[in-house]
């Protein structure tokens, strides 16, 4: 199933429909301010495990990332000190993934690495979905093949490729090709482990 939503004014009825799918353990493909993402209710362990299997992600070795709808939700799922909170506030919403220590609010699957990636994308569609769900959404990117870039940017082609796996694909327009900038905040010194679309404002 594919539905059209507009970033400027997402249809509340369609948002509720997506939220209902997430609550039922479904997989959703959605736009962000970088690449199209594939995700589920981040607190639904079975759904998280299913996406990890689909994407070949080993949660014991890889950082899992979640999308929060705003800054106030972040401290529930990650440990954030005052300087880090100020830095994130200057840069979010935006195309960044901040790697932070997890809190006890996240299920055990996130605690193998004791860290979690936090995203607050500058995209109203996914942030509205997360706000209405009341839980963060697990965030992985729709896989990119360099030869088939359109299959990760064009919602119709994404639906063609992933429609049997995802319960719903949200058409939010043509997606980007550059991933988020990843900032490791787990030590005293910030480390940019991947330079992507975002330029960090210190």
Question: Would you write up a description of this structure?
Answer:
The chain has one domain (2-194): DHBP synthase (Alpha-Beta Complex). The protein starts with a strand and ends in an 8-residue tail after the last strand. The longest helix has 12 residues, at 12-23. Helix 1 crosses helix 5 (124-133). By secondary structure, it is of the alpha/beta class. The mean pLDDT is 94. Strand 9 and strand 10 form a beta hairpin. The chain has a ten-stranded mixed beta sheet, sandwiched between helices. It is globular, with a radius of gyration of 16 Å. 29% of the residues lie in helices and 20% in strands.
Which features would summarize this protein structure in a list?
alpha/beta; 202 residues; ten-stranded mixed beta sheet; 10 strands; DHBP synthase
């Amino acid at each position: 199933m594919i539905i059209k939503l507009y970033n400027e004014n997402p249809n509340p009825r369609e948002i509720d429909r997506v939220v209902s799918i997430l609550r039922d353990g479904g997989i959703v493909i959605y736009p962000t301010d970088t690449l199209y993402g594939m995700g589920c209710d981040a607190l639904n362990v079975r759904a998280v495990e299913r996406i990890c299997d689909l994407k070949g992600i080993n949660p014991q070795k890889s950082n899992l990332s979640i999308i929060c709808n705003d800054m106030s939700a972040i401290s529930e799922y990650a440990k954030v000190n005052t300087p880090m909170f100020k830095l994130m506030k200057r840069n979010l919403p935006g195309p960044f993934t901040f790697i932070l220590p997890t809190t006890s609010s996240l299920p055990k699957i996130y605690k193998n690495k004791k860290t979690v990636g936090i995203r607050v994308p500058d995209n109203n569609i996914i942030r509205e979905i997360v706000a209405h769900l009341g839980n963060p959404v697990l965030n992985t990117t729709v896989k990119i093949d360099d030869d088939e870039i359109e299959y990760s940017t064009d919602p119709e082609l994404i639906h063609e490729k992933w429609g049997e796996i995802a319960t719903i694909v949200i058409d939010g327009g043509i997606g980007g090709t550059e991933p988020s900038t990843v900032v490791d905040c787990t030590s005293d010194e910030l480390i940019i482990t991947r330079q992507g679309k975002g330029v960090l404002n210190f």
